[in-house]
## 1
Amino acid sequence: MSTIVRRGTRVQEGQIRFHYDGREYFGQPGDTAASALLAQGVRHFGRSVKYRRLRGVMAAGSEEPNALLTVGTRPAVIPNVPAPRLTLHEGLVLRSQNRWPTLSVDLASLLQIGGGFFGAGFYYKTFMWPNWRTYEPIIRRLAGLGEAPGACELPPVAVENCSCDVLVAGAGAAGLAAARAAARAGATVVLCEREPVCGGELEFEGGTIEGRESLNWVAATLTELAGLGARVLTDTDLVGGSDGQVVLHRQRGGIAGADTLYRVRPRSVVIATGAVERPIAFIDNDRPGVMLLGAAECYLARYGVRVGREAVLFANHDRVYAAAARLAAGGMQVRAIVDTRSASTGVGNSLRAELERTGTQCLSGHAVIAVEGGREVRAVRVAPLAGSGPERRIVCNVLLQSGGWSPNTQSGAQDGGAREYSPGLAAFVAAEQPLWRAFAGTANGRLELCDVLADGQIAGEHAARQAGCATGAGAGAVTAIDARGDGAPRLVAFWRSPSPPQLEKKQFIDLQNDVTVADLRTALAEGFSDIEHVKRYTTLGIGTEQGATSAVLGAAILAELKGVPPGAVGISRPRAPFAPVTMQSLAGLRVGSAFRISRRTPLHAWHAAHGGVLESSGLWLRPRYYLANGPDAFTAGIAEARRVRATGGIVDGSTLGKIEVAGPDAAVFLDSMYLSKASTIKAGRGKYMVNLREDGMVLDDGLVLRLAPDRFVATTSSGHADHMLSHFEHYRDTQWNGRAVTLTDVTEAWAVIAVAGPQSRATLQRVLGSAWHEILTRLEHMGFADGHFQGRDLRVLRASFSGELAFELHCRPGIAVTLWQTLNDAGLGPYGLEALDILRVEKGYLVSSELNGETTPHDLLMDGLVKLGNPCLGRELLDRPGLHKPARPRLVGVRARDGRSKFLAGAQLCTENERTHPVGYVTSAVFSPTLDQWIGLALLARRLGEDTQLLARDPLRGGDTPLRIVPAVHFDPTGERMKQ
Amino acid sequence: MSRLHCPFCGPRELREFRFHKTLPTEPGTAFAGIYERIDNPELSVEHWQHVEGCRGWLRVTRNPSSGAVLETRLLGGGVA
Amino acid sequence: MNGTDQRDAMRCTLEVLPVARIVEFVAFGAAHGTLAGDWPRAAGAALRGADGWPVILHFAPARWLLPQPDVTMIDRIEAAVAAGAGAAIEVEGKWVTLSLCGADAARLLSSSLDVAAVLAGRDCAAVELFDCPAVLASAAPDYRIYIKSSFAADFTVAVERLLRAGGAAIG
C-alpha cells in the first residue's frame, strides 16, 4: 500500500483497491491500471505473443503494444485491454496474458531457449514432420492474444445512429480549434476524444493561447462549444467507417460495459488525432523499462508517476532536452541523454548546458546499441555512430526513447485517401484526400503549437464550407505563444542502431507481434518486397495498434534494407477498428433473440401453449408437430397425417402470401403474370395458377381468387411471398406503367386456417352456424364464399392441399384464435408442417423443393396448363429448344423396390449401369402412413422410361436404396376423396 | 457508395435496397437481354427496389467502376 | 467530464393502441390529381387530426395509410374510389399501432436508425425499425409506429430491452 499521495492532472486523493495477477494493489481515483502499477514498482505486464519475452508498459495510450491485460474473472473476461486505457475502479480484477503458469515463470519461454523456430513465415517451414497436426494442439494453446470470454452475460451495448455537419476527431489543440471554427460558422459539430478529458498534449506541455494559460483556453473553448450546440464525446475513439459513414466507439474507462457504438454520417470530417511517438530499433529494445519519452512525461504530469529512478534518454531531435528538464524537475534522475545527431548540426542550447551542469551526460552523434538486463533494464550500451570512440555502459533502470512522431493517419488511407513520406518529419503524412476529409495539427505533420492551432482553424472552416455553411472572412488568426520552449524539433531521421547481423533478430520493430529487423531481412530474401506483402508475411502491424508505433519504423527499415528512400516503399494500410473494440460492441443490439428477427402468426401463442414444437421456416415460426401426438417429428407427423385422412384436422396456414390486386386493369395484368388466364375466372371462384420467370422457369404457384370484376386475391407460397410481391410490383412499374392496377400485401391482414379430412364439412357446418350450412353443402371445388363469423369477416374457400375434402378459412387476425379454438373444441386436432408435408407428397403436390427455379412447367407435368396457356411473362423463352431436350428433368414418383426401405430427399438417382453419373435426384421423401412405406418425388432425366431400375445413392447419410418409378400422385390418383 | 437517394424517401442506407437487374445497353431479344448481355463498366442502368422502405422501384444510373451514382428515378406512377 | 451518459434508463414508454379498422388507399397510375383538398400529396406528408396525430399518411408512392378512419375519412375514401382515383383495401390486422412517448423516444429509435435524418422534412416514413418493417410518424417529441403485425412481438421485445436500465460495468 502506497502512503504517498501522487498529484497530477488526472488523479485525486483517495484509494482504490484492485487485483493484478492475484495480488492486491492500490491506486488513486483517476489512475489507470498502468499508472497505478507503475507507481507501485510493477514492471511486468505480460509476455510477447511469439517469443514469450517479458514485457512492460511502453506507451501511455491505446497504441500500447505490450501491456494488454485481461479484465474480469472467467467466464466473463474481456481480453486485450491496453493498460494505459484502463481506468481503475474498486474491485477490478486484472490478469497479464500470454504466460503459463505465471508471468515470472513461463513454460513456453523456457522451451524456446536458443530456438530460432519462430521467424517470419515459420508456419510454412516448421512443424511439418510427421504431420503438422501433431503440433496443432500445442500451437493452438500457445497462439493468440488473450482468451475469449466463455458463455456469459456481458453488459449490453448502446448504439446510436446520427448525422452532423462536421465531425472532428481529437480534442487536442488542433481539434478544439477546428471544432470551434466550424461551430462558429454555424455547423452542427460532433467532437470526439479518446481520452477522458479534452486538451491532448496541452495537458502537460502547457503554453499560452490567445492570452490564456493553455488549460484555461481548453476550458473556455469547451464552454463556447457547448453554447454553440456542439456535441463533445469523451472516451470515444474513431475506430473505422467507410463510404461517408464514420464509426465511433465510446468505452468509459477503457473496458467493456456501458459501451456505445456511434454510426455517424458527417458531411465533412477533420482528423486531428495527433501523432504517435516512434521507437527506435536497437538490441533488446523490448525489455521492461524501455518506454517512449512522451509516455514518461504523461505518467508524470497526469498521474504523478516516475516511471524509473535513473533514466537514460535516447532521441534524434531537440525536444529531448526540454523533456529531460521536466523529468528532472519531477524528481527523476536523468543519467544521460543520447542524441543521434552529430554535434555539427548545431544542437547546442542553454538547456543542454544546464543539464550537464546538474550531472546529466549529454552525448551527441551516439546511439544506444543494446539494453542489458533480461527481466528489466539494468544498463544500456552506447556507442558513437561515426569514427572510433569508446563504447560506454551506463547504468539505469529506465530507457526513454523518441525517434520522432508518426502522424495518426489511419483513416487517411481509406476512401481514396493517400499518404506520402515527409523527409522533414521522417514520417508519413496524409496526402491527397477526398474533399470532405481534412487533417489538422500534429496529425497533419505540424509540430509547433502556433502551426497546430492555425491548421485546426483552417481545417474547421474548410469542413464547415464543405458541409454547406457560410464562413465569415476569417475569424482572425489564432495567436499562440509556446511558452514552454518546445520549439522546432530539428529532427534527423534515425531508425535503428548498428548491430552485428546475428543480433538483428533482437532488434524489435513491432513489439506486439514480435517482428524484428531479421524478419524483414528474411522476407526480402524470400522475395517479398512490397510493403503489403511484407506486412502479411512478417505480421508487421497487424495487431491491436494497427501499426501506430511500428508501421513507419518497419517501412523505413525495409527501405534501408532494400537501398531505397522510405517514400519509395510506402506504408501498409491499417484496418479498422483502429483501436481495440470488443466483438460485442460491433454486434450492437443484435444479440440474444434480437440476433435474428422472427415472424409470428396470429395463432402463435396457441401453438406454444398447446405443445406445438415451433421451428423457423424462413423468418416465420411455425409448428412442425404437436407433442401430444408424439415425442418427435417423425412419430408425431405420421400420427397427425393419419388422423387427417381418418377423421380430420386443422392447420395454421396464415403464412400463405396474399396479394390483393385491384383496379380496372387488374384482370389483364394478371393474365400476363400467369401461365393461365385470370380474366376468365368468375367472381366467387378461384383457380390454380403458375407464374413463370422471364427465362421460362416456374417461379411460384398459388390460387387466384376473383372477388369482383376488378378485384382479385393472388396467393403465393409462404416462402416466396415477398419475392412474388416484388415480382408483380416490378412489372406493374415497368411494362404496366400507367395502367390502373394496384398491388397490396394482405398476408398479415388475413389469418388462414385449413380444415381438412372426411369430417371437415360436417364440423364446419356445426361451428359456423346455420347461415353457412347451405353454402358449405353446395360449395364446389375452387369456389369461395364471403360471410361472417361472430360479426367478423370470413371467407371460406374449398381447396385442398392434402387431397382430402378440405376448406380454407380466411378470417381477420383478431378472430383467428377464437375460430381455431372452436374448431379444436369441435373435435378437429391440429397438425403441423411435418404432417402437411406427408399429405402433400402422397398427393404429388409441389412445393419449393420441386419449384426450385430450375424447373419448367413441362418438367413438372404441367403440359396441359402450357397448352391452354396464354402469352404471359416467360412464355417466349419457355418455348426455346433448350428447355425441351431429352436431358431435361421430369417429375416422377419413387418408391423403394422392396416396399420397405428408407430413402431421403437429396439422394442422387443413378441407373444400375451407371452408378457414378446421376440422372436425377429425390426432391421430397416421407414415410407414408397411408401406404405404409417410404415414398417420394424426384426429378429424373426425361429420356428414361418408366420401368428404369433406379438406385438412390446417399453416400453422406449412408447407403444405396433401389427404387422404382411410380406416378407422382401416390394416393387417390383420381382425387375422389377431395370431391365428396 | 453506401447510400442511395430514394426519390420518395430521401437518402437512405444502401442495405435498405435490393438490386434486381442491369438493363441491356442496347435493344435486343429477351434471350440476349438475359444471357448475352455485355455490361458497360462505366455506365450501368439498373433496377433496384427499396424493400426496407417504401417498396418503390428505382431506376439507378451509376458508374460501377467508381461507385458514383449519377441518377435515381422512381419507376411507375404513370411517369416514363 | 463531457459526453452523454448512455447508461441511464430511457425515459419513454411504449403502448399498444387498439385499432379496429385500417385502410390502405392505393392510387391508379397518375390519378393523383383527382385527390382533392388537403389530401397529403407530397412524399412523406401526413394530414393531422385535431390531436396532432396523423390520420392520412403518404408513406409510399401512390399509397396512403388511414389508421382508424372516422366517418369523414371513410366518405373521402369512398368518394375517391367512386371517382376512379384508386382502390381502398381493408387491412385490419396487418398493422399493429404503437405509441412511443417520452423525452428519450428519439434516442431510443436512434439505436436502430438515424431518426432525425429519415424524418427530416417529412411527417412520416416507411422504415425498418430493429429489423421490423414499419411506418414511422412523428408528433414531436412522441412517435407513432405502425409495425407489420407478424413482427410486432419481436419489435416489442427489442424496445423493452432498451427501456430497461443499462447493465453494470464488468468487474
## 2
Amino acid sequence: MSRTVAYRTIDAIWRMESPKLIAGLTRMVRDVGLAEDLAQDALVIALERWPESSIPNNPGAWLMTTAKRRAIDLLRRNKVGGRKYEELARHTSLYTEADIDGAIDGEIGDDLLRLIFLTCHPVLSPEAHVALTLRLLCGLTTDEIARSYLVAEATIAQRIVRAKRTLNAKGVPFEMPEGEALKERLSAVLEVIYLMFNEGYSATSGAHWIRPILCQEALRLGRVLAEITQDEPEVHGLVALMEIQSSRLKTRVGADGEPILLKDQNRSLWDRLLIRRGLAALERCRRFGRPPGPYALQAAIAACHAEAASVAETNWVRIAALYEALSRISYSPIVELNRAVAVSMAFGPAFGLQIVDALHNEPSLYGYHLLPSVRGDLLMKLERYEEALVEFERAAGMTRNERERALLIDRVTECEQKVKPSRE
Amino acid sequence: MRFMMIVKATTDSEAGAMPSQELIDAMQKYNEELVKAGVLLAADGLQPSSNAIRISYPEAGGKPKVVDGPFTEAKELIAGYTLIEVKSREEAMEWALRMPDPHGFGQGEIELRQVFDVEDLMEDPETLAKEAALRKQVEQQRKA
C-alpha cells in the first residue's frame, strides 16, 4: 500500500471511528476536550505505524486500546486525583473487540447518545452546538465546517475551543438525562440536527442554495440517532422529514444555479429511494400510536408532496389540515404563512389571502420576504396585478438571496405586462 | 456519494442453496452495523438465475432476443447488492472490506462500484476549483 493510499484509508477510518472513540474516552476521563486529544494521539500513532506495518483487522478496537493506554499514562503521570484514576480502573475492560466492531449497541450507543447530549447542551450557543456536533459526532475537520458555513477557519476553531471550555467550566456531566429532562434535551438535539440540515438545504445568503455536506451529515446523524434512541417517535419524524426533503435536493436548483420552486420541479427526478425511506421512517413514527409532534407533522406534509404526481394531484385539503394541526402544537407565523398557501390551493386564493392579511402586523415577519412574496402570488391569482406588483417589488428588496431576487423581479415584470394592456 | 457493493453469484447461490446459519448471522450483524452508522440505503438478495430471463439486441435496431435462465457463467452473475451512502471512496472500501466473505468455499467475491451522481461533482468545492482552473487554462490556450 502506498503512503498516500494508506493516509487516505486512515482518514476514512478515523471519520468512521472517531465519534465512538471520543464518546468512550469521554466516559472514561470525563472531559470531552481531553478525550478528543487522546483520540487524536491514537490517530497520530496510527499514522506513524499503519503505513509501515499494515492496517489492523479491527482498526476501531486498535485505536481505542491505544487511546486508552495514553489516557492511563497521562492520568498516572499527572497524578490526577484518585477519583479519576479509580473511575478509570473500573472501566479497564472498556469495550471489548466485539463491541467496538463497528456496532453501536448497548454501551457504545449510550455513550454516543451522551456525547450528542453534551454537544447540544443548553449552556452552549446554537452556533457552538452545530460546530461541536459536526466536529465530534460527524468527524468533520475545522476547515470543512468553516467551508460549509462560509466563515473563516479560525472562527470555527475558536468556537469549538470555547465550547469545550464552557462545558468544563460549567461542570456539565457526561450523562443520560432522564424522564422529562430527557424529552426536553432530546428535542434540543433534534433542533440542532434540523438547523444543520436547513443551513445546508437553503443557504440564507450567497449565490449557492445548497451546501450538501451539511444535509448529508444531518441526515446521517439523524439515522444514527434513530437507531440508538428508543421510544422516541419524533426522532423518526425528523429522519422522515430529512429523507423526503433530501429526495428533492437535485431538483431544487436549475442548470444556472437558479432556484426551482416545488411546483415547477421535475418530479421524475425526485429520488424515489429517499422518498421510500422517508415514508418508512414516517410509518415507524406512526406505529408508536402517539399524537404526532412537529417533525412528524412536517414529514407528513412533505410526504403528501412526495406522493403526488403533480401540483394539481396534490392532496391540498390534507396538507391544509396538517398545517392547522402543526399551528396548534407549535404556532409560528411561518407555519401560518404556509397554511395560507395550502388553504389557497385547497379552497381558493381568497381564503388564503385572509390568513396572510391576518399576519400583516406580525412583528416577527417584518422584513421577511416570503410574506409579500406569498401575498403577491395570491393577489396575482385573484388578478389584482397592480397590488401584486407592489408586493413582489417589496419582496425583491428584502431577500438576501441573489437568485431568489432575480425570480421575484421576473414576477414584477410579469405583473407589469398584465397591467399594461388594461391601461391602454 | 453512493456506492454499490455487489455480491457475485457462486455455484451454491445459483443452485439455490441456503447459506450456513453462521454466515446468515454474520451478514445480519454486518447489516446492523451499516444501519447504525447511518450509511445503509438499501440491500437485497436476488433469486438464482434459473427463473431469470435475459434480453439482448443482437442486431442494432432489431428485435430483442429473449433467453430463459439459468445462465452458466456464475462469476458474471450477481446474487445481491448493498447500497451505501458514504463520505469518501476510502470509506466505501472500508465498509466493503468489513463485509463477511459472502459465500466461503473460495468463491466469495464482492465488487464495489460507485453510483453516478452529477451533483457530487458539481458541488464539491475542490472539483469546482479544479474545473475553474481547467477552464481558465483552456481559454488561455485558445487565446495563444
## 3
Amino acid sequence: MTDDATLARRALARQRRERWLAHAALGLGVLVFAFPIWITLVGSTHDAATIGRGDVPLLPGNQGPENFAIALGEGGGRMHTSPAAGMLLNSAIMALTIAGGKIAISLLSAYAVVFFRFPLRMLAFWTIFLTLMLPVEVRIIPTYQVIVDLNLFNTYTGLTLPLIASATATLLFRQFFLTIPDEYVEAAKIDGAGPLRFFRDILLPLSVTNIAALGVILFIYGWNQYLWPLLIINDRSMETIVVGLAKMIGSGDSQNEWNTIMATAVLAMTPPVLVVVLMQRWFIKGLTETEK
Amino acid sequence: MSTLSLSGITKSFGATTVLHGIDLAVADGEMIVIVGASGCGKSTLLRIVAGLETPTTGQVAIAGREVTQLEPADRDIAMVFQNYALYPHMTVAQNMAYGLRIRGTPKPEIARRVHETATLLGIQPLLERKPRQLSGGQRQRVAMGRAIIREPRLFLFDEPLSNLDAKLRVQMRGEIRRLQQRLGVTSLYVTHDQVEAMTLGDRLVVMHQGRAAQVASPMEVWSRPADTYVAGFIGSPAMNFLAGTLAEDGAAVQLRAGPLLRFTDGPRPGGNGRPLTIGLRPEHVLRAGAAPVAVLLDLVEPLGSETVLHGRLASGEVLTARLPGMVPAAGTQLELHLPAEALHVFDAETGRRLDA
Amino acid sequence: MDRKVFFKGRALPALFLLPQLAVTLVFFIWPAAQAVWQSLLQQDAFGLATEFVGLENFAEVVADPAWRGAAANTAVFASSVAFLALAVALFLAVQADKSIRGAHIYRTLLIWPYAVAPAIAAVLWLFLFHPSIGLIGRALNAAGVAWNYQLNGNQAMLLVVVASAWKQVSYNFIFFLAGLQSIPKSVLEAAAIDGARPLRRFWTVVFPLLSPTTFFLLVVNLVYAFFDTFGVIHALTKGGPGKATETLIYKVYVDGVDNLNLGSSAAQSVILMVLVIALTAVQFRFVERRVHY
C-alpha cells in the first residue's frame, strides 16, 4: 500500500501535469493554426525575389504597403492580373447576396409552413428539406446547364441565385417559430393584427438574434464558395477573390510574384476571419444551432 | 475515534472568502447534517471533504489519515449528488459496479455485491435498465446503491432529496436514515431544508456566511440556539424577535413592546439598559397568563388543529403566534401573553445567546 | 408541427413559399432530375445523337479503373481527413475544457480558421510546403527528405489531407467543446470519487457520452471531405501528380467540364447523391436515437 504522503505528492504532480499538458497542447495547437497565416502575413511584406529564393524570413519586412497597393490596384501573378479590389467587391456582393437571400426566403417559407394550414403544406416542407441532401457539388453539371439555358452565365444572378435556397436556414427558423407561444398569435388576433403585421411587428423583432447568428455563418459560406464561381464566371472583372487567388497560383511554379499573391491571400481571408472573431458569440450560436 | 475531522478549513475564490475557518469532529457512525441557506458555504465544505475542491488553508483527516491533498479516489468516500449524477450510458448494474471495477475487484465479487446492494435497496428488477428509464425515486436509490456498494469510510450527501416531490422526499428521508443506522456508516449530509436537518441528523452544523453558527444536536439547536440567525432559521413559523433592555440589575428585561419580564433561570450579565434581543417561538405565545400584550391581527391562517396568527404590537413590532383551536378574524385586537420561562435572550449587537 | 393556433388564408402562405420553392425546383430538383436522366443517356462522339442506355453509364463508371482509382483515393482521403480533424479537435477541446488560465483566449485563437476558405487553406499550406519557396518544404529537402508534392503522389495526398483537416479542426473543436460542456460536471465528479483517474474517466465516461457529437461530426466531416475539399485539391494539386489526388468529386468536374462527357459525369453525380442521401439518412436515424441521452 502506498503511503499517504506519496499519494498526496502524486495528486499534486498529476494536477500540475494536467495543467501543463493543457497549456502545452493548446499553445502548440494555436501555433499550428496560426503559423501558416503568420508566414503568409510575413511573406506579404517582402519582395518577390526574397520569397522566390525560398528565404522566407520569420519576421515582417518593409515591402508591405507596396505589395498591398499592387495587389489591390493592379493584381499580379504570372497567370492572372485582376486587381484584388474588384475581386473583393465581387466576393462581398456574392457573400452578402447569398446570406441576405437565404435569410429572406427562409424566413418567409418557415413562416408560411409554421403559422398557416394549407393543402400540400407537408409536400412543400419536404421539397425544401430534400435540398439538404443535394449539395451544389453533386448536381454541378446540370445546374450549370440550367444557368446557361436561362442566360445567367457570367451574371451575379447566376452566381448567387442557385446557392440561395437553403434547407438549413428554413429548418432553423421553423424550429425557432415553433417555440413562439400560441398566446402571441391569439393576442395578435385579439388586437386585430393580421398575419403580415404579426410577421413584421412580432416575429421579425423576436428573430433578430437568430438572423444575426445565421447571417455570420452564411456570410462565410458565401464568401468561401469556390467550385460554383469557378464554373459560372469566366469574365475576369466578375471573378471572386478566392477563385482569383487560386488562379494566380496556377500550377505552383516557383517563379511567380509570390509577394503579391501572399498579399492577396491576406486580403482574401481578412473579411471572414474578422467576422468570426468580432462576432464570435453569434457565430458559435449560429453554428451549433443550424447543424443540430 | 473520530472518523472525520476538519480543522481551520477556509476557502477563498479570488477575493471572496466563502469559508472562514470551520472546525468539526465527526464520531464513528455519526450522521452530521450541514444546514444553511443557499450561499452559506455548505456545499463547498462538502466538496472539500470529498476532495473536489482544495481548501485554501486547514486540514481534512478521514479515519486519522491526513487527506487534504489527496484526490477523491484515495479518500475512501462515496457521494450522493443532488442530480444523482448517474452515468447515463451505463445500466444500473454497471453504474453500481463502476467503482469496484476500477479498483480491480474480482468479477464474481462484484456480481455478489451488486446483487446484495440491489436487494437491500429493492432495485433488483431495475438492474438492466438505463438511468433515463427510471423515475426520480428509483434514480435516487441507484445513486445510494452506487455509494453503499463500495463500503466507504464516509458517506457524503449533497442535497440528495431536493429533486424529488414532497411525498417521495419524506419517504426517502426515512429510508436514508434507516439505511444509515443499519450500515452504521459515518455520514455528512448537506441540505437547506430544516425539517430534513432536524429529522436526519445526530448533530447539526448550522452554517451562516461561511461560519459554523452552531454545532449541536437537533433538540439543542432548537431549544438553545446559539445566535439570532440560528434561532430564526430553525423552527417554523420562525421565532419572534422583540427588542428590549436589561433591567433590575440583570434579573429582567424591559420589552419595548411594554411588559417587563423576569428571567426564570437567573440574571444576565451587564448593566441596566444593555440592549437585548428577546426571542420567543410562536408556539410558546399563550392565550392567558402574565405579561399581556395587545396584538392587532393582520393575517390569520387556520391549519385545522391550530391557527397561526400574525399581528402587530403597539411598538410596531411583528408577533406571530401558533395557538390551538381558535380562529379570530383578521383586523381584530387580541390580548396575548409572553411566558418568561420560554424566552431566549440574545445580545442585540452581536446576536449571540446570553445564558444565565 | 405542434402549433394549435394558425392564421387563416391561402394566398399569403403560397406567396411566402414561392421564392424558396421556385429556387428549389429550378436549381435543385430539376438539375438533380436532369442528372438522373442524363445518367441514363449516352451521346455519340460528335454530340449529335443521344440514346437511352439504361444503367450502362453506371456499369461503365463502376468498371472504369480511373473511377475506381478515384474512389480509392476518396476513401483514403476522406477517412484520413475525418480521423485527423476529429482526433486533433477532440484532444484540443478536452484541454480547452479544463479550467485553466487563458482558456478563453485559446478558444478564440483556435476557432477562427473556420473562416478560411478551403481553397485559401490550400494556398497557405502551399506557402509552407512548396519544395522551393516553402519554409518547411525547403527544410525537408535540406534535411535529406526528397520532398516534392508536385512529383510524389503520396506527398501530394499527405499535403491535401493536412490542409483539408487543418481547416476543419476548428469546426469540430467548437462542437466537441459544446459537447463536453453539456456533460454534467457532477457525473465526472462521481467518476472521480469512484476512483477513475483522468485518462480512464475520459475513455469510460466522457468519450461514450460524447459519442452522439462524434458521430454527427463524423458524418459532417465525411461530407466535407467528399465535396467541400474540391477547392483544396483544385488549388493545390489539380488532382495530380498523375491522378494521385483525384477524388470522386474532382473527377465529376474533370469529366463534365474538361472532357464534356456528360453521361458519365451525370452517372458519377448520381452515385455521389446516393452517397449523401445515405449519409444524411443514417445521421437522422441517429439524431433520433441520441435524444434519449
